[in-house]
Amino acid sequence: MCDLMPASQPAEKIGKMKKLRRTLSESFRSIVGNLISWRIQICVTKMSTRSCQGTDSVIKPLDTIPEDKKVRVQRTQSGFDPFEKPASQVKRVHSENNACINAKSSSAGKESPKLRRHSSPSSPTSPKFGKADSYEKLEKLGEGSYATVYKGKSKVNGKLVALKVIRLQEEEGTPFTAIREASLLKGLKHSNIVLLHDIIHTKETLTLVFEYVHTDLCQYMDKHPGGLHPDNVKLFLFQLLRGLSYIHQRYILHRDLKPQNLLISDTGELKLADFGLARAKSVPSHTYSNEVVTLWYRPPDVLLGSTDYSTCLDMWGVGCIFIEMIQGVAAFPGMKDIQDQLERIFLVIGTPSEDSWPGVNSLPHFKPDRFTVYSSKKLRQAWNKLGYVDHAEELASRFLQCFPKSRLSAQAALNHEYFSNLPPRLWELQDMSSIFTVPNVKLQTESGDSIQVCARRNSHGKASSGSKH
User: What would the pLDDT profile of 349-364 be if each residue is shown by its tens digit?
Assistant: First the structure.
């Protein structure tokens, strides 16, 4: 006969089972609560992006990157929703939803004071970024075809900001350029790239909140006609190359370099701005009537219809801007059309042929009989001030190469002899560090007063001399 189980064992076993069931029940409620909270957040995000009308599909991978390199991009920006709330707000939404669920499931039927304080949207400690009423408009700075830019002030921290207010058309949705600009800038953190602080989406507008920078290179050169101080040109060019090297290493092209898109702070920091064309599939267009100025900075390969872009596309624009800063006038100010623009380029650089530019005959708009045959000249013959600055002409000629693959890259240009008299610490800076954090590095006054740059060895170990000016 089997021995009977002691009476105490069933009671102990039942107690353990009840304890386990309570634990599982609490875990299940917690999981369900999190799932509900997560679902609510998805709904909020979907509602806020409804007017986007499927614009995720228009942010295409760079067609300019070789096939073997495209994988490395990993669509770093494609997961970014330009209308999603800042992380602090998302966290708050989750907390509020969880607080609501927990309050409903409470046996007491009352919300704890702690939860009520945390979830109150009117709490003075609640973040207010991402809200339209968090910024005060001070004055209009400019207006374009689809956006207006205002100088503004943050009510959260009191700092000045630039508000780019993009008007949304219900039948057209959000402009593609706005999507590109927001998605790209969200992931770029560099002292020489304009900083995107916040994104505000309403039914009528999409507002991009940028750091406020008081002028641009175009306005700066207008105030200092006849060419900038040579030392200032060097510092501006160094910063431009620094910002370009940063984005080019991430397989991003700016594609619209011109002085108007290079912001200048009151301390002399240069910042790349306006990334609206940064992922455009095709830069050239057949409607150039109101884009003549932009033509001045486009490379001949783009003007001739090439769509095989790479980082060299931006480097031609660098050369044009470099010469304009030194000489005080635009390098190639075409006044009529693409034909006129190309003629001005070929007059200095030389008319290309298959020998000097392999593959030029296959470009859509290149017809040899349409262009006068010019031989190349020394750049100082066209822009005499290049001859007054050591190594400036040689560097400019490395940028202004008709054959795209012959152009100097941004990273290589930073190591050019032209920069040899700058302090070597400039090459050691972190991405978010300004060049003006290095001692003895600051803009010269355009009246001619000089600030001596100490002689020392540069990053290549070559002796560098003090500034001549």
Answer: 999 999 999 999 999 9
Q: Write out pLDDT tens, residues 193-208.
A: 999 999 888 888 889 9
Q: Binning pLDDT at 50, 70 and 90, where does residue 347 land?
A: very high
Contacts of 223 (CB under 8 A, 6+ apart): none
Query: Which DSSP string do the residues of 395-418 spell out, in sequence order?
Result: HHHHH--SSGGGSPPHHHHHTSGG
Q: Is 355 a catalytic residue?
A: no
Q: Are residues 329 and 362 in the same domain?
A: yes
Of the residues 256, 274, 301, 314, only one is catalytic, namely 256
**For residue 59, what are its two tokens?**
């942010």
Domain that holds residue 239: 216-410
Task: Note the pLDDT tens digit of each residue in 404-461.
Answer: 999 999 999 999 999 999 999 999 999 999 999 999 999 998 754 433 333 333 333 3
User: Is 0.90 topped by the overall pTM?
Assistant: no
Burial 19-57 (b: 16+ CB within 10 A, else e): eeeeeeeeeeeeeebeeebeebbeeebeebbebbeebee
Residues 177 and 238 in one domain: no
Distances (CA, A) of 317 to 157, 261, 441, 448: 37, 12, 25, 28
Q: Are residues 251 and 394 in the same domain?
A: yes
Residues 308 and 250 both lie in one domain:
yes
